[in-house]
Design goal:
The complex is a heterodimer of chains A (about 400) and B (about 90). With about 400 residues, chain A is α+β, with helices and mostly antiparallel strands. Chain A has two domains: about 260 residues, Naphthalene 1,2-dioxygenase Alpha Subunit, Chain A, domain 1 (Alpha-Beta Complex); about 120 residues, Rieske Iron-sulfur Protein, CATH 2.102.10.10. Chain A contains nine helices and 22 strands. In chain A, the strands form five sheets. In chain A, strands 1-16-17-18-19-20-21-15 form an eight-stranded mixed β-sheet. In chain A, strands 3-12-11-6-5-4-7 form a seven-stranded antiparallel β-sheet, with no helix packed on it. The relative contact order of chain A is 0.17. Chain B is mostly helical. Chain B is flat. In chain B, helix 1 packs across helix 2. The chains are: A alpha+beta (about 400), B mainly alpha (about 90).
Chain lengths: ~400, ~90
């Protein structure tokens, strides 16, 4: 590369269309096709083994996109499984909400009981069911696999690819980074969600380009990327895979550390938005071009997950559609495990600062949704620095077009 | 969020008071394991964390403790930490 403003492009960057008919894409009829042809055909990241630390651990994930709720458990065989959260007797929601640790789950309606592995192990007033072979029955299971600490499900009857194939070149590139299902290398710092009145595409798009950062984030992180030698904050690395994309954000070598940022990160490792850190411990997939002025990577796991990977932290965002015009956006933030009060201080600062940046990003969604429905434009216009969006729509349109 | 209910002028004395003493505060708190901190140390710990979470308006030179062009804070639903390790 000759200049700090150059982008190294990798992957299938030919044949992309910078003009995208987004108003038509966010129409309800199109959205219904997307649920069947995109969401139901994809491996979807749904959780982290951090939230299921023990045999018997469980959590409930309501999924309006699929008109279901999942009960995700760590069995006593240490296996992670996902079930439709439904009692097979009369269809009651088995576990109403939340998380915890239980050997068994009993339905509040008639007391039918299931093991943490999903098996029906207890039917009250059993003789009244006669000869029916209830003992062989279990909760309806959904395909579920883990990759490092990440839990994925697939609602297809038979997934067309294994999770490893789905993860493309990234599958072997993160060894040692996230951790394993039994030992997480990070701790969760905070977790929150919002319901926005906007289409899920707008949510994903808001987080998968850096072009907006100098405008949208001028109040919260005014100088965290780019700097004098790269004022428009061009991505040094932009990589398109079969479905996913990954780019690196450029740090600003002249970032001015503000006073509280300095104090809060003094007692432990530096976190967002301070990026002048030693990245030599990072595996192949993090800062894949090993650029010097590196801030973090942004990975879009198609269709609806965006993760940011930093040297000692990572952030995750999900965009779960409720319908064509409403989306649940969830954010979970992780940092290196804090050993003492000083390191926890850094975590608190990171959590608050990260949340403030997130709030600015999601603030574009409802206004954009409203105006895209006006009929004023029929296409949006994307720059080469918004190539992750061009690719996102190419993949989405291809999957919808397949019958 | 309580931060929304106060002005930068209200917040500034708190910001300045703890900024000046944070090295001392952390040196004291770092003596204790996180999961068995005595009660008075815990109070100081929570005060320090509150400082970390409320410093950004002063740090970034804002004129108000929240900015207009941002998604409303009262629409954020905080999710409790997983209770999966309990019981």
């Amino acid at each position: 590369m000759n200049s700090p403003t150059d982008t190294r492009y990798l992957g299938n960057t030919g044949g992309l269309d910078p003009l995208v008919p987004l108003p038509a894409i966010i129409e309800p009829a199109h959205y219904e096709r997307e649920v069947e042809r995109i969401f139901r055909q994809s491996w979807l990241l749904v959780g982290n083994t951090y939230d299921l630390p023990l045999p018997g651990s469980y959590l409930v994930l309501d999924m309006p996109t699929f008109n279901t709720s999942l009960l995700i458990t760590r069995g006593h065989d240490n296996q992670i499984r996902a079930f439709h959260n439904i009692c097979i007797h009369r269809g009651n929601k088995l576990v109403r909400s939340g998380s915890g640790s239980r050997k068994t789950h009993s339905c509040g309606f008639h007391g039918w009981t299931y093991s943490a592995e999903g098996k029906l192990i207890g039917v009250t007033d059993r003789p009244m069911f006669g000869d029916m072979e209830l003992e062989k029955m279990s909760l309806p299971q959904v395909h579920c696999e883990t990759w490092h600490t990440h839990i994925f499900v697939n609602f297809a009857a038979q997934p067309s690819e294994t999770l490893t194939e789905w993860l493309d070149v990234m599958a072997p590139q993160y060894d040692g980074y996230f951790g394993t299902p039994d030992k997480n290398n990070f701790e969760k710092v905070n977790s929150f969600q919002v319901v926005t009145n906007g289409n899920w595409h707008l949510g994903v798009n808001a987080f998968t380009e850096g072009y907006h950062t100098m405008f949208i984030h001028r109040n919260t992180v005014p100088d965290y990327q780019g700097g004098r030698s790269n004022p428009m904050r061009h991505r040094p690395h932009m990589e398109l895979m079969k479905r996913h994309s990954r780019y690196s954000a450029p740090s600003n070598p002249d970032h001015r550390i503000t006073p509280a940022e300095d104090v809060c990160y003094r007692f432990g490792r530096k976190l967002f938005p301070e990026f002048r850190v030693d990245g030599s411990h990072l595996p192949k997939g993090v800062n894949p071009s090993k650029v010097d002025q590196w801030a973090f990577d942004v990975i879009e796991l198609f269709p609806n997950h965006v993760m940011l990977t930093g040297a000692h932290w990572h952030m995750h965002m999900w965009f779960w559609p409720i319908d064509a015009g409403r989306t649940i956006i969830r954010m979970d933030n992780y940092a290196y495990p804090a050993k003492n009060a000083g390191e926890k201080l850094g975590h608190s600062y990171f959590a608050a600062r990260g949340r403030e940046v997130f709030r600015e990003d999601i603030n574009t969604i409802e206004a954009t949704q409203t105006m895209l429905r006006s009929g004023g434009i029929d296409k949006i216009i994307l720059s080469r620095q918004e190539m992750a969006l061009q690719h996102h729509f190419r993949v989405a349109q291809q999957m919808v077009a397949q019958s | 969020m309580a931060l929304m209910g106060c002005s930068v002028d209200d917040l500034r004395p708190f910001y300045q008071a703890l900024m000046g003493r944070m090295d001392e505060i952390i040196a004291y708190l770092n003596q204790f394991p996180l999961d068995s901190m005595p009660e008075d140390a815990q109070n100081l710990f929570h005060l320090a964390l509150t400082w970390a979470e409320t410093a950004h308006p002063i740090d970034l030179g804002w004129k108000t403790t929240d900015i207009d062009d941002s998604f409303p804070a009262n629409r954020i639903e905080y999710l409790a930490p997983s209770r999966a390790a309990a019981s």
